[in-house]
Amino acid sequence: MLWFKAFHIIAVICWFAALFYLPRLFVHHAMTDDNATSERFKIMERKLYRGIMTPSAVLSIIFGAIVYFYNPVYYSSSAWMHAKLFCVFFLLIYQYMCWHYLKLFRDDKNTRPHTYYRVFNEVPTVLLIIIVILVVVKPF
Ligand code: HEM
Q: Which residues form the pocket of ligand 1, taking CB atoms under 6 Å from any ligand atom?
């Protein structure tokens, strides 16, 4: 079980690397007027979303589920796990919003300023802090 938990944490770290980096690309993409720079950002965003964010999200959930089903009665009756999965649901909504914004930039239809993406970029940090406290401290 510990091997699966280790792979779960590795996948989660990769997922968060992408969750932190992609919105940062959106900040700089929203600030540029140069077409060549914009085209380069489009390639970076697409590769990051398809090559790292999505596979690591899927692996985080698969390995998390494997660890969960080693002890389903305990985890399904743990309020901290319910709260954790609620936060994971928000992470998946956040990832969908990233996909939506990625397509707007791809089609040169983004109208939001870089300041919007700077605030948007902070959401995963808040969710990460809450999730790690829930799963390590198990406060309730
Ligand atoms: C659907 C998604 C997920 C499921 C089903 C899941 C499930 C689990 C389970 C069952 C454990 C073992 C908990 C224990 O017995 O101590 C665990 C550990 C852990 N999970 Fe997740 N998890 C998910 C997503 C995440 C996410 C998004 C994070 C991001 C921070 C995360 C971070 C961790 C950490 C740090 C541990 C190790 C805790 C410890 O060993 O003390 N998990 N996860």
A: 5, 8-9, 12, 60-61, 64-65, 67-68, 75, 85, 88, 91, 128, 131-132, 135-136
Domain boundaries, the chain: 2-137
pTM for the predicted model, two decimal places: 0.92
Minimal-distance CA residue to ligand 1 atom 39: 136
pLDDT tens-digit map of 13-72: 999 999 999 999 999 999 999 999 999 999 999 999 999 999 999 999 999 999 999 999
How close is the Cα of 93 to the center of ligand 1, in Å? 18
Q: What contacts 24+ positions apart, CB below 8 Å, involve 106-114?
A: 106/42, 106/45, 106/46, 108/38, 110/26, 110/29, 110/30, 112/30, 113/30, 114/27, 114/28, 114/30, 114/31
